[in-house]
Amino acid sequence: MTEIAYRDPDFETLERDDVLALQHSRLAALGQRLEQIPEWQEHFARAGLTPRDLADPQALAALPTLDKEDLRARYPYPLLTVPVSDVARFCSTSGTTGLPVVFGFTDADLDLLAGQMARIFATIGLGPEDRVYQGYTGGMWLGGVSMDLGLRALGATNFPLGPGRGELAIQWLVDQGHTAGFFTLLWYMHLATLAREKGIDPRRDWQLRLGICGGQAISKAFQDEVEATMPEGFRAHDLYGSTEAGGPVVAVPCAHSHPADQNHLINEDSVLTEIVDPQTLEPVAPGEVGEIIITTLVKQASPVLRWRTRDLVRLAEHPYDCPCGRRGLPLIGRVIGRSDDMLKVRGVMVFPSQIEDIVATTAGTAKDAWQIYVTEERQQLEQLDVEIERDTASSRSVDEIADEVQSQIAARLGIRARVACRPEGTLPRYEAKAERVLRR
Ligand SMILES: [Zn+2]
Predict the structure, then answer these.
(1) What distance in angstroms lies between residue 231's CA and the mean position of ligand 1's atoms?
(2) Interval between CA 225 and ligand 1 midpoint (Å)
(3) How far away, in angstroms, is 191 Cα from ligand 1 center?
(4) How many angstroms separate the CA atoms of 13 and 409, rounded?
(5) Domain map (residue ranges) of the chain
(6) What is the pLDDT of residues 193-252, one digit of tens each?
(7) Could you say which of 3.40.50.12780, 3.40.1000.10, 3.10.20.30, 2.120.10.30 is the CATH number of the domain covering 1-338?
């Protein structure tokens, strides 16, 4: 097992009670700041509170949550909290539905982000010697900026290739000897396929040892498969965060929690995370599934209080005893799905990631293309159709593959789905966020 490298040992080794005490004092300070802002006074007043009430640790749970609609209603600078002239940089959400929402970062916020990211990198075992192929987009999107700032703070060497340019990337991975890669798992898969077509063997010719793969809800099975196509010992790390949280800064696995697919809430001194039942908003117990709710504790511009991410995760059975010693930073599983993506088919709860797990573990399927169609009757989801592709290199027939996926869905999810297996290349490919569920 890798040696433990704490970026901020004083904080990372705190006991849980001490982490909570630190959060409470930062909430009180946040309340004093927000007291000056009419927009926030108004928000607190909805619960019969004022921002200063944050000095009482119980006050947070009494506050209304924040949702997309709350931000949209305050267009163009929702809950900015500082003058625009104090903002060093704006970033925005992707805006897949409606106008993107912008979030401001002051100079201090960018320093905070750099520190949060550097801690994440150190947690996965990245150091100043690493050469990183940084494949995330810059511009208004927060992903690339966060990675660039964090790598600089860590002292690692950044090769900001950005997304795309696969032909160049597979060659530079050989010639420049990148030891880490930051891009989606689908892109890893694409690069590996492309490399093999050009006579490059990723396992032999590349030196990648660490990967960060955020931005997509991906199954553990698919991650295992990608790891197996890379050099011996390569670990791909799921990274979780969001623009509202101030970056991809919320959760990451350590070397100890990675095999069990568990992520530490690593920046609890700056991002307070609640895991709650999406209906009652009550905290869930260890081992239960809940929605992540985010409060930014120190961000100056565009802070959020009780932001509903809609992302569902399972709180670990034993959240506070990771052997790495980060006992105050709880462990959660990967994102299972979105509370608004959850499908109830004839009363049975189904997440697209469960279907993906099955596709990924069935021999002969193309792993990057699958699609779910649901049929709605009288406001109820009645029928689940799954379309998959047969990998051209497979010796199995389309019927054989479809039958296996169908019986796996029945066995694991308890529902009868219709499964059709198509030739490779028939179904849509998605470069960024895949739309796996289509209603008809
Ligand atoms: Zn750990």
Answers:
(1) 24
(2) 23
(3) 30
(4) 42
(5) 1-338, 343-439
(6) 999 999 999 999 999 999 998 766 667 788 888 899 999 999 999 899 999 999 999 999
(7) 3.40.50.12780
